[in-house]
Design a protein that fits this description.
The protein is of the alpha/beta class. Helix content is about 30%, strand content about 25%.
């Protein structure tokens, strides 16, 4: 039996970061994963999808906008399989990097299936070797979540796909129905559309990216339709049936019923936690009604010495949230002072085209919370850098408290807006006002000037609008 201060189950962005910080805090640490170092995000999620999106951006430019840039050619050949292979290479490099970090920080790595066999004990099973029993003063569950697909839709990985099927397949479908217009649905719609695939995007709620500010969803729908993506909001999928040619997807909404024929369908409607079958319930760990692990502000469960971080907690299913939780949890285990995460103010980004980024309250949420607000908007079509990039669609929208001028939320859609968020989240964290953001000198010409102009617009003082 091996003895550890901390054993982390799951090597995704929550688990491996937690393990590193625990080791940095002087705790003897081990980490267990049944498949990958780096988890879903690094191997079949956020990292390879961003590599594919870069290829998609190039493909869209060459297919649809080459004349605008003065580029002409004959017999354009876009090799989608090569794009997928490049994305796998990026993932492998980063996964190897996580392996290096484990060695650097003296963290013992066990590959296999973990089961909590006691309050302070984890058994690691490997199909090709003997079981390992690890004694642990603290156990951290960082087991993530999996794609939720109704059993009636019978995912087969060929005609009915999960996000993992989609990101690994080298075959480019001629037509596809994407069910769910969250981040995964929006990003794959962007990728496939850029390569010429006929894309139909179906969302049950009234707007694309339904968790974003309402104006963002409407602006994205307008951009998608302009690219030729069929958008069906307020539509429910009634049935998905496979046939010799592909799939038939029957949808209903807005007083109509329609059947869409396509080669494939991607189901991207949400996630469920990987909390079953690892022994949590056997030792009495509290789960909510959806089987996510209940944790307090320090990421502790109701059982002393058992902790949880990342998607399995159901807080915010984002890689950077998992990593932040991992650091906080490791510090709490080490007895350090910690500060609760303000989940409402966590930034998020969707890397479709145009990009979407946000944090904080939407305009509707701020009003519902009882704030008297002021809103400042600035369009990228009035930003010199955006026009130079030929990416003038979208806007920056800031929601501010009318009394004190503090930033309550920000909602951006446009070129590289994911890179613009840190200035705003730092400003909010430091309780800066929109006037202070406006008075901060921004380099010209940059996309960030749109932040300055939107801050000025809160009080009606934008210069270039």
């Amino acid at each position: 039996m091996e003895n550890y201060d901390v054993v982390v189950i799951g090597a995704g962005p929550g688990g491996y970061v937690c393990a590193i910080r625990a080791s940095q805090n002087g705790l003897k640490t081990a980490i267990i994963d049944k498949q990958w170092l780096g988890g879903v995000c690094l191997n079949v999620g956020c990292i390879p999808s961003k590599a594919l999106l870069k290829n998609a951006d190039l493909a869209h430019t060459l297919r649809e906008r080459s004349k605008e840039f003065g580029i002409s050619f004959d017999n354009l050949n876009l090799d989608y399989a090569a794009a997928v292979k490049r994305s796998r290479k990026v993932s492998r490099r980063l996964s190897n990097g996580v392996s290096f970090l484990m060695k650097k920080n003296n963290i013992d790595v066990y590959m296999g299936t973990a089961h909590i066999t006691g309050k302070n004990q984890v058994t690691v099973h490997h199909d090709e070797g003997e079981d390992k029993i690890l004694d642990a003063k603290n156990i951290v569950a960082a087991t993530g979540a999996y794609s939720s697909i109704p059993s009636a839709w019978k995912r087969d990985g060929k005609q009915i796909l999960s996000y993992q099927d989609a990101i690994l397949q080298e075959h480019l479908p001629e037509s596809v129905v994407v069910v769910g217009a969250g981040a995964i649905g929006a990003e794959f719609s962007t990728i496939w559309n850029a390569y010429g695939t006929k894309v139909s995007l179906v969302e049950m709620l009234p707007n694309l990216l339904p968790l974003e500010d309402e104006e963002i969803g409407k602006e994205l729908a307008k951009a998608f339709k302009k690219k030729g993506i069929e958008v069906f909001t307020s539509h429910k999928v009634e049935t998905i049936e496979t046939n010799a040619k592909g799939v038939s997807v029957r949808i209903s909404g807005n007083g109509e019923e329609k059947t869409i024929e396509a080669e494939q369908v991607l189901v991207a409607i949400g996630f469920r936690p990987n909390s079953s079958g690892i022994g949590l319930e056997d030792i009495g760990v509290s789960l909510n009604e959806h089987k996510f692990i209940n944790v307090d502000d320090r990421l502790a469960t109701n059982i002393p010495g058992i902790w949880a971080v990342g998607d399995v907690t159901g807080k915010l299913l984002l890689a950077h949230v998992a990593s932040t939780q991992g650091i906080l949890c490791a510090d709490a285990i080490a007895g350090k002072e910690t500060h609760p995460i303000n989940y409402q103010m966590v930034p998020s980004a969707t890397y479709c085209q145009p990009q979407v980024a946000s944090f904080g309250m939407s305009e509707a949420e701020a009003k519902e919370a009882g704030y008297e607000i002021k809103v400042g908007k600035f369009p990228f079509q009035a930003n010199g850098k955006a026009l130079g990039l030929a990416e003038g669609s979208g806007f920056v929208k800031l929601v501010a408290d009318a009394k004190y001028g503090e930033l309550l939320g920000a909602h951006l859609i446009g070129p590289e807006v994911s890179e613009l968020l840190p200035e705003l989240t730092l400003a909010q964290r430091m309780e800066m006002t929109v006037e202070e953001i406006a008075h901060n000198i921004h380099t010209h010409p940059t996309l960030s000037e749109a932040l300055m102009e939107a801050a000025e617009a809160v009080n009606g003082n934008a210069i270039h609008m």
